[in-house]
Amino acid sequence: MTPSPAQAADSIQRDGYVFLPAATASDFFATPTDAPAWQALASSWDDLRPDTYMADGGRYRLRRHATFAAPAGGTIARAPHQPHYQMLRHNPLNGGLERWFEPVETAIGEGEALTRLLAGARSVFEATATESGAWHIEAHQFRIEARPDTAGKPTPEGMHRDGVAFVLVTLIGRENVAGGVTAIRVDGQEGEASFTLEHPLDSVLLDDTRVWHGVTPILPLDPAKPGHRDVLVLTFART
Length: 239
Hints:
- By secondary structure, this protein is an alpha+beta fold.
- It contains 5 helices and 13 strands.
- The chain has helices at 5-15, 22-28, 36-43, 106-109, 112-128, and strands spanning 17-20, 49-50, 61-70, 77-78, 135-146, 166-175, 177-179, 181-186, 193-196, 203-207, 211-215, 218-220, 227-238.
- The strands form 3 sheets. Strands 1, 2, 3, 4, 5, 6, 10 and 13 form an 8-stranded antiparallel sheet that branches. The chain has a 3-stranded antiparallel sheet with strand order 9-8-11, with no helix packed on it. A two-stranded antiparallel ribbon has the order 7-12.
- β8 (181-186) and β9 form a beta hairpin.
- It is globular.
């Protein structure tokens, strides 16, 4: 059964995160993966740009980036392009500097599919948050490439926090790859949870102030063919 934003928020408050499998996420975000809006969003992952900031020297990550502003009670709107910044304590590999990535294309940033994902995530996080206010939202398009001689690393910094309030991770697609298992560790809870985002729109929403998260490397199933894992990450921070 598709949860309401309040029910999803209850899960996050209790467990630190909520996983929405593709069929549930499709209903929740009103975004069928066979709809033209989703197809337009997904196809934009074929036009990302290399991430040249990788301190490990890797060239397996492509991305685009956008920021949005959501005033309290107001509409989410695209903000002027700006760099992505993380403190070293949140990203010991690539943090501590301003990273300028190519912007998300205007048609994608204003498109129906991304607009619904932004609104749906906001509805859950507003219900989860203990305080009200405006949001600073960042959207990250990631493609991690897998090659026979080099593993692609979705989270080369390891288990981490993003230094924000809440995070949505949605799988756009994966092709010819093994691995990419998501691990979740919640402060105050024993052990780790793990699951694999396998189907387009498989999604996890989490409380970044309580949850450590990471993804295992990927390798091609068939070494003779290219492989990749595409995800959309939305981060929500109070302003």
